[in-house]
Amino acid sequence: EVQLQASGGGLVQTGGSLRLSCATSGFTVDGYAVGWFRRAPGKGREGVSCVESSDGSTIYTDSVKGRFTISSDNAKNTVYLQMNNLKPEDTAVYYCALKIIGLSCSLYDFEYDYWGQGTQVTVSS
Questions:
Q1: Burial of 33 (0-12, 13-18, 19+ CB in 10 A)
Q2: What is the pLDDT of residue 73?
Q3: What is the pLDDT of residues 38-74, one digit of tens each?
Q4: Which of 57, 55, 66 is closest to 35 using CA atoms?
Q5: pLDDT above 90 covers what percent of the chain?
Q6: 124 in Cβ contact with 12 (< 8 Å)
Q7: CA 112, CA 107: separation in Å to the nearest integer?
Q8: Rounded to an integer, what distance in angstroms lies between the CA atom of residue 106 and that of residue 89?
Q9: Is 7 exposed, middle or buried (0-12, 13-18, 19+ CB in 10 A)?
Q10: Residue 6, exposed/middle/buried by CB under 10 A (0-12, 13-18, 19+)?
């Protein structure tokens, strides 16, 4: 059974940092991508970042470029999202997702096959 476990959310002040983790298990494929998405109150789900297992290629949505960094530890089957200089508009429930059909990263949620539960990130002003 494929499982994704997101953790690391919390309450932080503007300008602070958090590191989210996404532990994955239950699958064996040669290539895949893991994405981070978020859903802010009253808004739709937004793609934040993605990393490809094959070569570590990454993509980011424009609003987080320069502030967020995605990375993966293949030995631990874990993907991280380091979030620096957080802003109130980053407040959302953050989800990680696994894309095993097609190796390339995407910020479109419909391209992902498995989802973890969310972790709440709240940035106070």
A1: buried
A2: 92
A3: 999 999 999 999 999 888 999 999 999 999 999 999 8
A4: 57
A5: 86
A6: yes
A7: 9
A8: 22
A9: middle
A10: buried
